[in-house]
């Protein structure tokens, strides 16, 4: 059960099928463990998975990446300098790393006029409070227990849009398996996001690295850049870079204005 709570803390959500495949156990075993953890007050079960025991903070009260100070905040801080200048367009995925980026974006790009589209209800609500940002929500079905939007509706919107840069947070980032997700529906949305952006940046927390999900949507070389935690082992970072994208390590303690750690000599 420790593996479940660790994954929940890292990703903000766990899915039964994903945990069962990851641990090599039966689905019913995972469901039983989730029931026990819920009884202990450590999580709350949802359809097909679980969320943290306490509801997530509202967009209005969510801490900025700098205030949060965790691993997702470090990835977000490393992504901030990659934002375009005034007049640029940005596509934001859904998920913990991208929601952290959305929380930090207004402070970094204060007064900068940007067009931002997102598949995250949380990100859209947080960013819509800033007059300099033109915020669009892709629409579609909201995945139960999360703020992520999926489905044909969102994919159709993406098919007619074009962005300067997209920030994605896939479920798996592996040198051989490429970019993957735990569901085919999520992978289909990510494939549409890739096709709509001139530049693609992948935010890869520790839980996604070296992991191959159920559905593959692209080779790793489809990403222009992958941002990884500061403590990623050098061999893994080198393997990621050899597969095509530039690899950057997030700073161990991100500065308030965001930034990238110096490139790893073994990677660049």
TrEMBL record:
InterPro entries: Carb_Metab_HTH_regulators, DeoR-like_C, DeoR_HTH, NagB/RpiA_transferase-like, WH-like_DNA-bd_sf, WH_DNA-bd_sf
Biological role stated in the UniProt entry: Repressor of the lactose catabolism operon. Galactose-6-phosphate is the inducer.
Species: Mangrovactinospora gilvigrisea
Alphabetic keyword roster: Repressor, Transcription, Transcription regulation
Membrane-crossing residue ranges in chain numbering: none
Name of the protein in question: Lactose phosphotransferase system repressor
GO molecular function, one term: DNA-binding transcription factor activity
Pfam family, one: DeoRC
Annotated HTH deoR-type domain residues: 1-52
SMART domains the UniProt entry points to: DeoRC, HTH_DEOR
Region (Disordered): 38-66, 249-268
Keyword Transcription found: yes
